[in-house]
Design brief:
- The chain is mostly helical.
- It has 7 helices and no strands.
- It has one domain.
- The radius of gyration is 18 Å and the shape is elongated.
Length: about 160
């Protein structure tokens, strides 16, 4: 039997992994994903009988995540879909628990970004045998990296490892 403590994280993880896979393939995250996550939060809040204080804390977390992600969007670190996905997922965290979520996103984002950089450096080196190392690095650094997978991994790690 699936308990409530398992049901919601598994459902949300399924949605966020689907968004990450699509982001990886297309560099886009449909609005359907953050809307589903936010809608599920409203449903969860309504059936759980939590207070307005909990709702306020969750909205504060979402607003904080949105501001941080929007700043990253302005500097072209992440796309608009990433901003919306991050803000929707932040609804599920209190402000105190938001930091482990951000921590795991940063760690997984760094690992995924380094992996993409290494992959593109190897790929470019294989295609352009006569290219200098500096030219390969500059070319590899221009490659886009989908951030949805880092957000998904950060969410799952925050829910499991950090026990949020």
């Amino acid at each position: 039997m699936i308990t409530e403590a398992v049901f919601w994280p598994v459902l949300l993880s399924t949605i966020v992994v689907a968004a990450a896979i699509i982001d990886y393939r297309t560099f886009t995250i449909s609005n359907k994903f953050p809307m589903a996550i936010a809608g599920l939060f409203v449903l969860y809040w309504a059936i759980s009988g939590f207070s307005l204080g909990i709702l306020g804390a969750s909205l504060l977390s979402a607003a904080a995540a949105f501001v941080v992600a929007l700043a990253l969007y302005v500097f072209r670190v992440m796309g608009g879909g990433d901003v919306k996905l991050l803000a929707a997922l932040a609804l599920w965290f209190t402000p105190v628990n938001l930091l482990p979520f951000f921590f795991w996103i940063a760690i997984t984002g760094g690992v995924i970004g380094a992996g993409f950089l290494l992959y593109h450096m190897i790929k470019i080196r294989g295609l352009e045998a006569n290219t200098s190392g500096e030219a390969i690095q500059k070319s590899a650094l221009k490659q886009r990296v989908p951030y949805g997978p880092a957000i998904a991994a950060g969410f799952i790690l925050a829910c499991t490892v950090a026990g949020v």
